[in-house]
């Protein structure tokens, strides 16, 4: 019931917003394919082109953050626009880059220790970009720590919520990827509602 309510809320949020939601997803996808297209990395030998792709993609992290903020605002009934994608560049560019670096580093270290802890930690840190929307004053380490605390007791719920979309993901594959134009925004807004739900619980406990 809990998961169906979150999905229902997402569908309600997307009513009248499908066009902009799909547009944001498509534009973000295009932007993140550009480094690979421009530098044309060697498929077999690691070279400077591969490094260029990695660095450029990393520097584009604020776009991912901006897209996450768009999903959050949509879940809260606010209007969204393509300006969401550039907003983090204008406000907390350096912080988003450093947060992304620390998050990736921590996940790498946990994964090197064991695969399973790495997967678990990925759920612990999954609210990092969401929290940046509401608590931009936090330091990179603080926002990651806040995500870990907020997800305490909710990692299993996030995993199960993701599993409820397996059928939709298979539909996206069957439609040769076309279905993902609707599926990705649907999943993303659902998780934005999930964030708001656990955030309210977390803030109530720490009030």
UniProtKB/TrEMBL annotation:
The chain crosses the membrane at residues 20-39, 51-72, 92-120, 158-184. Coiled coil: none annotated. Keywords: Membrane, Transmembrane, Transmembrane helix. InterPro entries: DUF975 (IPR010380). This is DUF975 domain-containing protein.
